[in-house]
Every structure is written in C-alpha cells, then in structure tokens.
Amino acid sequence: MDRFMKRLGCAALMAVLLIxxxxxxxxxxxxxxxxxxxxxxxxxxIESASEIPAVDSTQTIAYTDKFASTDKSVMxxxxxxxxxxxxxxxxxEAVPHYLTETDVKRVATALLGDVDWFEPEPRFEPxxxxxxxxxxxxxxxxxxxxxxxxxxxxxxxxxxxSLVDNVKRFIEKYSALYEAAPSGSPKACEWTFKxxxxxxxxxETLAGQDLSQENDAIYAVTNVGEVExxxxxxxxxxxxxxxxxxxxxxxxxRSPSSIDSMIYRAKFCRTEKPTDExxxxxxxxxxxxxxxxxxxxxxxxxxYIHTTYYGDTPEYIIIVSAVPVFNGTSAVRVPQIGNLKSxxxxxxxxxxxxxxxxxxVNGDLLDFSMFSPIDIKEILNENVATKSxxxxxxxxxxxxxxxxxxxYGMSTDYLDLMQEDAGEEFVCQVDICQMDYGxxxxxxxxxxxxxxxxxxxxxxxxxxxxxxxxGNVYAASGETIWNDRIVPLIALNAVDGSVIEIYIx
Length: 505
Description:
The chain is 22% helix and 31% strand. The protein contains nine helices and 17 strands. Strand 14 and strand 15 form a beta hairpin.
C-alpha cells in the first residue's frame, strides 16, 4: 500500500508509530462492547433484518457531542456530518484466493497489455547481455554530471556529488563487463512459480540449499518503449501465514542509488497539473484493469493527486486505490496489517485485501500492488439485522471513554519526556469528524483459513496533544505523529456492536 510516508522530524518519534492505537490498551473496568476481533464473533446469532434495506437511498448523519475519558486525559468531540448511502448488509465468509500461474500472467497482461515478458536476471548475481548492458550505460551516461543530477533530484550538494560518483562507478563497472558479456535476447518468461530466492541468486548459488519454507514467486520484466518494468507475484499457504501479493514497478535490476525509477518518473510525471477530468479518466482505466484481472469484485474508494517538488519542478502522480465488494457492498478501507506473525489474539495471518495504482496524468502506469485477493465461500446472510447508527455511536463513545492519552500515537516514555521538557502536562484532544460504513473483516473462530466480512463502522478523526495551561500544540496527527491528519480511531461490528481491532503490529 505506497502513500509517500512522511519522515518524522525527530528520530525518537520512530518508536511512536510502532505503538498500536489500542494495541497496549489497559483492560477496561466497564465492559462497553461484546468482544474484540479475536475470533469470538458467533455466526449463529445472525438474524435477518425485518425490513429490506433502501439501497442507494441517502441518510443525513449529524452528531455533535463533547465528552472526556474517565481519567480526563483525553477530550473528545463528535463532529459528524454527512450524507450516507444505504447499502446491503450481508454477512459473508471469504477465503484466500491462492494465485495460479494463469492468474499471474493474466494480471500482467491486464496491467500493460500484450507485451513480451522475459525472465529477469537474479538481482544480486545478474549476467546481462551486451545489449542490456549498453542500454543501461546509455541511460545513465547523461546523469554523470552535477547539473543533470541536480535537475533530476534537487538534493543537497553533498548528496548530488555522491550520486554523480555512484553513476560513474556503475558505468565503469558495466563497461568492464561489456566485452565478456554474451549477445542475444533474454529468455522469455516461463510464468512458473519458483522459490523466492531464485529472484536474487543464481541456481548454482542456491544448489543444495533448503528453500522449502520460502514463498513461491514469479518474476518478469518487460520494456514498454524505452521504459523498463518489473512484475512480481508471491504466494504462500503455510501454517504461519498466507500470502497472495502482486507488484509492478518501474525499472529492472539494480541502478546507482535507484536512479532508474527517478529517471522514468521524471519522464512521465513532470507534466501540467492533472485536472478532475484527468483523474476521472485514470480512475476508469484502473476499473477496466481490475475487471480484466478477474480476481473478484472491486470498488475504487480513493483517487487523488500527489505532488512532489524537486526544487521548483513538480511531479504529479494520480493515486487510485480499491477495496473488495461483497454482495454489492464494498469494504471500508482499514490500515494494512503490520505483522503477519503477531501472537495477539486478534491478529491475522493474511494481509487486508487491497489494490493500489499510480498513474501519470497521461495514464502511464507507474506502480501497482495488490494484496490478498479473496474468494467468497458462502453468503451467510444477505440482509442481516444490525444495530442502528445511534447505538453504534453510543457504543463507540463508551469504549473511547475508557481509553487514555497514551493510546493515540505517543508512547508512555516519550510522552513523559515531552511533558517534562514543556514544563506542563498534556491533554489529548480528539476530534471525531468522519464515519465510514461498509464491510469489515473479522476472524472466524478456531481457523486461519477463512474470514467473515460483516457490516460495520469506522470512526476517524484528528489528534492533538496540547498543553493544559498554555494550550500549545506539542504533537499533531499528520505532522509529528501519524502519517495523515485524519486517523482511523475505532471500528465496530454493526451486527453485535463489538470492537474490531484495526491496528495490528
């Protein structure tokens, strides 16, 4: 999932992002919800709703409230306003879709069309042909000087000089390899799964090694015009965790300080700023690609322009993301799982299902990732009885009141240190300003082989740590903590009102 993660201004804050929002939560003395996402959701309690939902009808949501945590360390406000569209409320059991070789080739074709794909050289032990070596040298040669590198990356002089030196070293190294290199075309891609190590090392190096616990992978490379792409697919079905992921990115093999991807992005993305119409055209292209992949139903849930400046020169990238759809209702986007090997009771061993694209304004594909495609095993209920929005909002309030200010992005040690430096105590101010309603994933009891998707809500908002006496803001979401200003805070299962854990690290 690449959303151009911001770097924290202080190295000490790196530990902060490793703290789950509720991962270290104290056990509440009052039971405000039925359970967490720990596999305790009981499908036998599912009851059908007495009324057919008014699908596509709109409902105005308006909630305002102020309340504090029981220890007064967090001040909450509800500022929820918006129009919400009525949806089906199914309960679905889904299972991982394990990628086949046919799937992988079909996805590669959906992404870039009918192009010739080749077996890549092992990343750490490549043996390139004369033609491949010459192509690389010709691409790097224009950047063996300070002026060209400065235009490309607009970094500080020390970095620019070191990158120029690195480019020259690569050119010298590959020039030395040219004479002994063979001529000819690379081998056509076989589209067969091999152990992941074969993408990095030669068969001779790997001979005799036990690779039985590795993931299975397919790697392929291609050229579209003068631009190289690498495509990869990884699958795993073992007791520790499951994988079915696919990626496409610019470039092939190693390059000096990853300059190849910078060169290609500059070629594609230093354009006029995209318009709303450009975003709509690219979004439609992403929808067509997902349809051609034939890996379940998908719904585009985000499409926006990301701008990066290199000096005064902007690069524009249109980012499009999609979530799965179940019986006509799309999933709600949740944070991706950080640790598939977590031993927490609510942990999962399969990444959240997600698809992400990056395009230029002209529709050139820059990057793609898909995590965890799924198959629907069974629709347990097409129209389940759910709690009302009012009930869910109140349940969320009851749960949030039991939290404290250590749980919103600041570790205990660092929070204590900041308060000591500031000379005053902090209050955490949380403004809940966004509600999303849709399908959320929960565990099926006693199995890691399937999951339930149930209707539910996610409440999101902004977080600020402020001084009790001065009102100064010492840390804020989207700045010094968290990557975005609006952060998912709590998710609730609309069937039984239970909390669904959304931060798994």
